[in-house]
Write a structure and sequence with these properties.
By secondary structure, this protein is mainly α. Helix content is about 60%, strand content about 5%.
Length: about 300
C-alpha cells in the first residue's frame, strides 16, 4: 500500500512539473510575440502591460521585468538592476524570447514549441547568452530612449556580474556599437560629412569606470566565434566588433582634426585609446592604412 501511495505522489509531482514546464514555454512564446511587436518605436498599450504582469511567474519574473524595460519608452535600462547580468536560467529564457521573436518574422517559421524544446535541451555558450542580453539591452536604449543622450551615464563594469575581461569586453563593445550607429550617418551620408553634428553626439557618449569611452583599453581578450549576422554562420567576435569600434575612434579623430582648438583633445584621443596599439589595426576593414600611418606618426 505504501509503495502504491509513493508511486501516486511521484506521478503527481511529475505531471505537475510537466504542466509547469508547458506553462513556461507557452509564456515564452507570448513574450516573444510581445517583443516582436514593440521592440522598435511602438509603445506597449495598457493591455500589453497587463498581459506582461500575467506572465510574471516565479520562473519568469526576471525575464518579464527585463523585457518590459526593453519595449518601454524612456526605460530604466541604464540602472544597475538591468545592467547587471541575471542568473543563467533567466539569460537562457531571454535568449529564447529573442529567438521566438525572430522566428515569428520568418517566411517559413518553425514550430515555436519545438524551437524552445530544442533550445532548452541544447548547450548554449555562456558568452552567446551574454552577447544576446546586452544586444537586447542596448537595442532597447537606442530604440526607445530618444533623443540619444548617455552623457550622464557612467558604466561601472565591476558592478555587473562580469567575471573577466572577455565579458567586460562584450559589454563595452555592445555599448559602443550603439554609440557608433548614432554618428555613422553624419560621417557617411552628407558630402562633406557633418562633423559638428557627429561631435555633438560623441559628447553625449557615456563614461566607462568614470573615464571617457576611448580610455577603456582592456580589449586584448581571447577571441571567440559567434553568429552575429543572420544566416552568415559563426564569425570572429573581435573581427566584427573591433572593426566597428575602430571606425568610431577614427570618426572621432577626424572630427577633432577639423579645428585647431581641438589639438589637445586630438592628442589625448590618440595617446589614451587603442589607436596607439598596432595589434588592433588588423581588425579594421576601412581604415587599416590610415591607422598604420597614424601609428608611425605617434611612434
Amino acid at each position: 500500500m505504501r509503495q502504491i501511495f509513493t508511486l501516486i505522489i511521484v506521478g503527481i509531482a511529475y505531471f505537475s512539473s510537466l504542466s509547469q514546464d508547458l506553462d513556461v514555454n507557452n509564456n515564452l512564446i507570448e513574450l516573444g510575440k510581445i517583443y516582436k511587436n514593440f521592440m522598435f518605436r511602438a509603445n506597449p498599450t495598457s493591455e500589453t502591460e497587463k498581459k506582461l504582469e500575467s506572465l510574471k511567474s516565479v520562473d519568469l519574473r526576471t525575464t518579464v521585468e527585463f523585457l518590459s524595460q526593453t519595449i518601454k519608452q524612456q526605460n530604466n535600462l541604464t540602472d544597475e538592476k538591468y545592467l547587471k547580468l541575471p542568473d543563467t536560467i533567466s539569460l537562457k529564457y531571454i535568449f529564447i524570447v529573442e529567438m521566438v521573436s525572430q522566428n515569428l518574422i520568418e517566411e517559413n517559421p518553425k514550430d515555436n514549441k519545438k524551437l524552445i524544446a530544442d533550445t532548452i535541451n541544447s548547450k548554449i555558450s555562456y558568452l552567446k547568452l551574454i552577447d544576446n542580453y546586452y544586444t537586447m539591452l542596448f537595442n532597447g536604449i537606442g530604440n526607445k530612449n530618444q533623443p540619444f543622450d548617455l552623457s550622464g551615464v557612467n558604466f561601472e563594469l565591476d558592478k555587473y556580474n562580469l567575471s573577466n575581461d572577455t565579458e567586460k569586453g562584450i559589454f563595452f563593445l555592445k555599448a559602443m556599437n550603439l554609440c557608433g550607429t548614432v554618428i555613422w550617418g553624419y560621417m557617411n551620408i552628407p558630402n562633406p560629412p557633418n562633423y559638428k553634428a557627429a561631435l555633438d553626439m560623441i559628447n553625449k557618449y557615456p563614461k566607462f569606470n568614470g573615464l571617457p569611452y576611448y580610455q577603456f583599453t582592456d580589449l586584448n581578450f581571447e577571441d571567440f566565434n559567434i553568429e552575429i549576422l543572420k544566416n552568415k554562420g559563426e564569425m570572429s567576435y573581435k573581427e566584427y566588433y573591433l572593426d566597428k569600434y575602430l571606425s568610431t575612434l577614427v570618426y572621432h579623430l577626424i572630427c577633432l582634426d577639423q579645428k585647431k582648438k581641438y589639438k589637445q583633445q586630438k592628442m589625448d584621443l590618440m595617446l589614451s585609446s587603442i589607436l596607439k596599439e598596432e595589434l588592433y589595426y588588423k581588425y579594421s576593414k576601412n581604415f587599416k592604412q590610415q591607422l598604420e600611418a597614424l601609428f608611425k606618426s605617434v611612434k
